[in-house]
Amino acid sequence: KEKHKILHRLLQNSTSPVDL
Amino acid sequence: SMPSGKEADKGSSNVIVSHLLVAEPEKLFAMPDPLQPDATLRTLTTLCDLADRELVVIIGWAKHIPGFLSLSLADQMSVLQSVWLEVLVLGVAFRSLGCEDEVVFAEDFVLDEELSRVAGLGELSAAVGQLARRYRALQLDREEFVMLKAIALTNSDSVYIEDTEAVQKLRDLLHQALLELESQRRPEDPRRAGRLLLTLPLLRQTAGRALATFYGIKTRGGVPMHKLFLEMLEAMM
User: Fold this and answer.
1) Do A10 and B56 make contact, defined as CB atoms within 8 angstroms?
2) H helices within B67-121, ranges in order?
């Protein structure tokens, strides 16, 4: 998982999508 | 207004398609650096930079796909790591529908056969061109494109997925929405949905060609690549 830090961070950030 | 009776049956798939249409990201521009004198380096740098920004957009887009966020974080990662190039390539093929012999990576970054060949992208462009021809022959429209892209996301065969049943459920939901969409819009063509799904093997093959191309660029070096792009390339090797 350490190897995929950026993807992990991007998915974790604002886990809830913006309201459509 | 609320649909009633028979109209109500048409509701669920239309809700998904409308949702996917709204979730469709804004188009990106490649903005090639006019000050880069080396045409090949300019082309490859532009392509890798564009692909990196597309990746960020694809990750954001995936969060809008119904049910995707209900997967564990680990499974979200495994799915994206295995299919991001398919999603990216499908977008390029769709943008290229109107151009017979060119690949439209972005509105301001269109490669013809010669430009592609010179930059060492001949095989990739030919492969994307073949995929675009298939969709052109099918006259793929925007609704079908967004459905197919969402289905491609959930069609991951990553061996790292822990809850494969949950991913299968998402795939079934979107598959059903595609079947309903086509049965409403083209009742005279019962094979339409199947025809669209039968393009998925060529999509995966084309994404494989893209992976080989990008990995070759990375191995040869000399072209700047962003960290996320490298990370996602590594995840596929």
Assistant:
1) yes
2) 73-95, 113-118
Structure tokens at B129: 């061109």
Which value does ipTM take for this structure?
0.85
Enumerate the β-bridge partners of residue B103: B111
Residues of B in contact with A15 (CB under 8 A): 63, 69
**Do A10 and B59 make contact, defined as CB atoms within 8 angstroms?**
yes
The answer to whether B126 and B103 have CB atoms below 8 angstroms apart is no
Q: Do A3 and B231 touch (CB under 8 A)?
A: yes
- To the nearest whole percent, how much of chain A has pLDDT over 70? 55
**For B25-49, how does the pLDDT look when each residue is reduced to its tens digit (9 = 90+)?**
999 999 999 999 999 999 999 999 9
Question: At A15, is the secondary structure helix, strand, or coil?
Answer: coil
Which phi and psi angles does A15 have, rounded to 5°?
-55, -30
Task: Provide the Cα torsion B225, B109, B59, B48; round to 10°.
Answer: -10
| Minimum CA–CA partner of B233 in chain A | A4
Q: Return the half-sphere exposure (C-beta side, CA atoms, 13 A cut-off) of residue B3.
A: 10
For residues B26 and B147, the answer to whether their CB atoms sit within 8 Å is: no
Kindly tell me if the per-residue pLDDT of A19 is higher than 70: no
